[in-house]
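Before the break, one more example. Copy the sequence into your notebook; we will annotate it together after we see the structure.
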Amino acid sequence: MFCFIHNGIYDSGSMFASSQTNPIGNAMKRLLFTVILLAVAAYSLPILAQSSVKSPHGDIKMDCFSCHTTESWTKVKQPMDFDHDNTGFRLMGAHKFTDCMSCHQSAKFADIGIACADCHTDVHQRSFGIDCASCHTSDNWNSQLEVFETHASRGFPLTGVHALADCQSCHTNAGAGEFRGISQDCASCHTGDFARADNPNHIKASFELQCLNCHQSAAVEWQRVEYEHPESFELKGAHAFAECRDCHEQTFIGTPKNCVNCHQPEFEAAVSPNHTQFGFPTNCETCHTETQWAGAEFDHLQASGFAINGAHQAILCTDCHTNNQITGLPRDCAGCHQDDFNTVQEPNHVQNNFPLNCMVCHTEASWEPATFDHNLTGFPLTGAHQPLDCASCHVNGQFSGTPNDCFSCHDGDFNSVQEPNHVQNNFSMMCLDCHTTEAWEPATFDHANTNFPLTGAHLQLECIDCHSSGYTNTPTQCITCHQSDFNNVQDPNHVQNNFSTMCLDCHTTEAWEPAVFDHANTTFPLTGAHVTLNCIDCHAQGYVNTPTDCFSCHDNDFNNVQDPNHVQNNFSMMCLDCHTTEAWEPAVFDHANTTFPLTGAHVTLNCIDCHAQGYVNTPTYCFSCHDNDFNNVQDPNHVQNNFSMMCLDCHTTEAWEPAAFDHANTIFPLTGAHVTLNCIDCHAAGYTNTPTDCYSCHDTDYNNTNNPNHQAAGFPTDCMVCHNTSNWTQTTWDHDGQYFPIYSGKHQGEWNNCTDCHVNPANYQVFECIVCHEHRRSEMDDEHSDVPGYVYESTACLNCHPNGEEKVRPPRHRRFDRLNRTGYSG
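Here is what the structure looks like once it is written out:
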């Protein structure tokens, strides 16, 4: 650019020299020269301003072009590149739309305060403290919701008309900061309302200044009263709608609570019935309610113990209460209905000495027809007894002392029966044992009520078939009737085989044949192939002392088996260990019942594969059968590596290969990148005495690491201090927590290598701040002139800036004093 200008100036001589010959061309050249000079000035002035001109905004670390343009110094860019969030004071709420100069009245931006009180006058005069944010927000200075919440937290929620009132209505001296100590008592604000009230007049009524007794703070007006009348006189019915003055004409104190004090005129005017003549008590609520005076309902039952029901409801009070007699009237039926009782002829109540309890036969609905409930006696009427006339049983009009047993009326029937003859057979006179009240015949005797219920073929028999000798002491044992059946049976012969005479063990009441013996009731229940055998197959020698062990019948089967030979192998004679009752073959031995249950590939083997030497003392550990597998393995060689002969440590019963060794059972469980390694990667020298420390395998990683250089720095060879098994380059060294934040804060991403700060790779205790922060010594000395014990060195920088932030922590004066006294200097 300067070369261009210089050339332009150099050429200007020739331009002026030729001005006489070409004046217009010379003028154009001079104009072009001026434009070039202005362009150079526009380019150079910001650079000069930044390098030598002091900013009117104070010491700010931002480019002027973030806000200004070359068009005008006072005209700012729209939008600006400046982000207010980076200053530490984020613009929120109404602050977002406020003009900059409203807060920054001084051009030196750093001088502006960030406390609310720096811009907003505290009208409360700090009576609420200095934390404006406890009530206000940046969205709206007058936050109604927060005012409500604050008021509620102070014990006086704003409800009703209070929610609509201005603050100054109660806080009359708000301008002087009077917001605390305001009384919460209603009377402190509403004494005028109290004095003006005339319906009722609060002062004349001697009301207390306890407004909340009748008024509510949530009400929207003073006149709305929700007074809860005392429990001693709860307002209900018509009282709930009465005006206060209707009862409280002069005063609210000492007002009587009994009805007659207000309702004496209604009491005296009542004529149906005449309350005065009858001498009714003045206890009005006995008949009347609070809803209305008319339509009284007297509870006759509650008042007198005599319920008005049926025909009694239609009569007048005077029909019973003659001569104005209210008390002393009889409550029993005969007291009024004695004449009705005496005049009845069918039946004659007096002659039959009927009880005077009329309700036994009559009801309150009417005297006739009368209905006597025979169920209330000791003889309910059922069956053929129901349609009988009373005289059929109650002869001569006699209703007392009538017998209620059947035989008293039916002795003639009992004595005249011939089939069977009830008298000769000494039958019971309890007729209901065989007969019912429906009819004398047909009679049905329920044999189920005896100790011999009839079942099966017995149901079809005639009574005489069993009771040929009568009906008393008839035997109930089967053999008594079926002795000949028992003696004549030949297949099998019951007598020779000494069978039990309990016929029901094999026979049923349905028929003597076929007979079915339930072998399940013996000590040898029949299952499998035994179910279909004939009895003689097992009981060829009879039915007594028949053996129940399998070998007794299957000794030939046991002795003749060759594969495997049961006798040579000394097999157990408990046949059910391998065989079932379904069939002798195929036999199934449950190896799970031994000390060696079969699993995996063992399940499909033939017995001879393991029991080639027999079935006695067969070894159960793997190596006994798999020694060849063990000895012939080369990768890895089990013998050379002195592997354990406990095959199940690596192999399973499913197959010899693939083998899976669980490294978690060793002192070195595999984690991270170790999981995917081949065994030979760590066990190249064998499987015994393999080292478990990281350095043994990762010495090359340790020695070749240059950032930082582990060898030069003398780092410990305990790799797990910084590294993990997942990745060598992923370290867990907590530089931020233990020393200085380099992965967070302002130093995040500001360095590439550890040696950027640790300039001595042989000693990481040494670090330098000034290498990156190229401060001039004179400038730093000037800025720290007021810091006691200040020294210009990196350790001092860390001491005051432990988090890398510009804000300086308070100096440790005692330490700096000690340093000054010893004459220490940086």
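Residues 23-52 form the longest helix (30 residues). The chain has a mean pLDDT of 80. Try to locate both features in your own notes.
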